[in-house]
Amino acid sequence: MSNEIQQRIHETVTGNPVVLYMKGTPQFPQCGFSATAAHLLKQCGVRKFVGVNVLADPEVRQGIKDYANWPTIPQLYIRGEFVGGCDIMKEMYQTGELQKLLEGLSDPA
Predict the structure, then answer these.
(1) How many CA atoms are closer than 13 Å to the CA of 41, on its beta-carbon side?
(2) Is this structure's pTM higher than 0.90?
(3) N or C, where is the chain less crowded by C-beta within 10 Å?
């Protein structure tokens, strides 16, 4: 995987408070797991987050798997840290941990 792709991914995840690498876009997810992940963020009050459509760029699709050493998509990053995929997000949401991680990043209602 090229250093350029890794650098671009690094800049995206560290330069934005909430980043979701997903299949499709937050408005039009193209897989159930990505749809669930985007929905969970919205449930936590996060309306503005960077959604990166891995289907648009095969290099990014592979690069993000290498970046986090995580084989599946979606992948959530909060404040530059890799959080996990859809199943981890669901578990964290159920325990309230995801909401805590996103405190201060949600939009006022």
Answers:
(1) 30
(2) yes
(3) C
Largest CA distance in the chain: 41
pLDDT per position as a tens digit, 36-90: 999 999 999 998 899 999 999 999 999 999 999 999 999 999 999 999 999 999 9
Q: Strand 75-78 to strand 18-22: parallel, antiparallel, or no bridges (unpaired)?
A: antiparallel
Give the separation between CA 19 and CA 13, rounded to whole angstroms: 6
- Domains in the chain (CATH in brackets) are 3-101 (3.40.30.10)
Q: Are 66 and 10 in contact (CB under 8 A)?
A: no
SS (H, E, C) the chain: CCHHHHHHHHHHHHHCCEEEEECECCCCECCHHHHHHHHHHHHCCCCCCEEEEHHHCHHHHHHHHHHHCCCCCCEEEECCEEEECHHHHHHHHHHCHHHHHCCCCCCCC
Beta bridge partners of 73: none
